[in-house]
Amino acid sequence: MLQEVQNNNMSLIFHSTTLLLAISFFYCFPLDPERVKSPSYREGRYHNLDPDEELQGKSPLAILRWKLLGPKDPPAVEGLTEELPIVLERNSKDLVAPEGKVRVVWFGHATVWISSTFKGKTVNVLTDPIFEAPILVNRLVKLPIPKEDLPLVDFVVVSHAHRDHLDRDTLRYLRSKNPNLQILLPSGMKSFSEEENLGSTVSQELGQVSTKESVKITFLPAHHWSRMGFTDTNQYFWGSYSLEAQGKIIYFAGDTGYSSHFKNISERLGKPVDLALLPIGAYKPRWFMKYAHIGPEEALVATKDLNAKSFAPIHWGTFPLGDDLPKEPMLDLKQRLTFPSSPDTKGLYPTSDGISWGSKDGVKIVPWTIGSGIDLE
What we know:
Number of strands: 18
CATH architecture: 4-Layer Sandwich
CATH class: Alpha Beta
Structural class: alpha/beta
CATH topology: Metallo-beta-lactamase, Chain A
């Protein structure tokens, strides 16, 4: 039975990849002529801070080779199954931060809700929002709240141009709910946003700042690459973000491999990160994924580079993008942590779902699930 399932999966992978290759050949996105003026653009493409020859973009044929020929990594933990992460259902009131707090709720993958309420004024931020599924990929779990029930979003921050992070339908939907929505994009995406009818957007260079009320958002480095069609590989920039509100710093890493940029960000910020949102999934096989995706082990190193007080893992359990099974990244991370004899639920929201903070080398880490929240105060 298992062999039959594997054969069916391989057949689906082959046909899906072939279809993606065909689609890519016939779909091209506009390129911003102003991109060549970016300090991060040279020699015909955007670049990372560190050498990035391994990040020229994976062709559909390279992906096909990975899927068909391997090799695959061994399981990270014993007893792995196809079990999906639990989804905690939420309503609109659950998402709005109480006065004097910053509330962070994970929606799955790299989509995180961040709400700050200060002196009666609330600012809501959504990272890399995707409400359905990217092309040719199934969504494994639902959102913790129907999109129709979301409070108005003030800021959307997009880390990079990959379809599981930059979803045009989701952005247009959020724009329809709030015409004053501010969409923050990486450098080189002005023509793209105009062509895709995304409304008013901001294309950012490293260090660029956007503000509203008590919230300050800064565009920062990542170690990654970009592509939406066939002819635009690394013609749009990529990055990460810090969000400062009420004296707290939340860092959203987007998608990233490990590099010196984490220490660079710590130097830029000049003070500790209160909560780091770091990706851990789509990390296997390492020979294919390591240049673009950190895994649990590297995420823990990154927390030290960032001088982070706490870390919540994202980018796992939502889309089957790597060889890792849905809960494997989290279970891999969890086995590296130490947990207190009595559960530590301070700041977790809700506190009654059995989740406790763990720790590693003085950093607090929460093995949360989709719909889980953290209150910073």
